[in-house]
Amino acid sequence: MRIHHINCGSMREITADGCDSRHAVCHCLLLETDRDGLILVESGLGTADVTTPERTLSEEFIGRAQPVCDLDETALHQVRKLGFDPADVRHIVLTHLDLDHAGGLPDFPDARVHLMEAEHRAALSAPGAHPEDRVRYRPAHWAHRPDWVPYSPRLGESWFGFDAVRPLDGVDAEVFLVPLGGHTAGHSAVAVRDADADRWLLHCGDAYYFHGEIDPDNPRVHPEMNILAQVAEVDRPLRIANHARLRELVRQHGAEVEVFSAHDPWEFARYGEM
Ligand SMILES: [Zn+2]
């Protein structure tokens, strides 16, 4: 399987101690598989979001995140630029349905969309109890009625001590959900087996925002990103507990598992495809 790391949505510029200043990213993966065609992990901002942001994104999000809105960064355009037909994207695996993760869905209307059932329910019934619902979940992103494949948590399947939801329906490649709650109702990480490199990738979505949060030796938050994380969270104790679990994963299995999140530009820069 060939793995491409693509940024499908630059946002405001941020800086951190010891790091250069960079635009926050929407870190997505495009997987070239042997039997499942192309699989997109996360979809970033879509073509409608970057051409008419005022129609599909919320005002609050535009203010907070300051999306750059570059059409060339959308998954659709990057899939084409890599020489593929967007119709070959047969599966999209999502950590959650926040607007900056689900925005690309309408650009791949025939793909099957895999995610946790609790997230699907929360987003499609929004606005619900949480005041952030209207800001984060945007019905324009699923107005085309995607082919949803929602999953309930499964007992007994474990991956490095985390619950795993595997296999994904109709997906032969080792790509599956690892529920990591706290940010949204049904937030999940996505595990991908990179057999060629004999390692795993764990895309943590918004389970954390800044690499310092999962640094086992020097855990620290990013002041600005932490404010955004707290505004958006639905369960702080669960979110914080998951940081501790991820630090343990990195400490014990850092050689076997590469852990990264959706928006940290310094993690994205490791993969050299800015
Ligand atoms: Zn996000």
Automatic annotation (TrEMBL):
Span of domain Metallo-beta-lactamase: 25-263
Domain of life: Bacteria
UniProt xrefs under InterPro entries: MBL_superfamily_lactonases, Metallo-B-lactamas, RibonucZ/Hydroxyglut_hydro
Keywords associated with the record: Hydrolase, Metal-binding, Zinc
Signal peptide feature range: none
Record's keyword annotation contains Zinc: yes
Transmembrane feature ranges: none
Any one Pfam family match given in the protein's UniProt record, by short name: Lactamase_B
SMART domains in the record: Lactamase_B (SM00849)
SUPFAM superfamilies (alphabetical): Metallo-hydrolase/oxidoreductase
Similarity comment text for this entry: Belongs to the metallo-beta-lactamase superfamily.
Name this polypeptide is given: MBL fold metallo-hydrolase
The organism of origin for this protein: Catenulispora subtropica
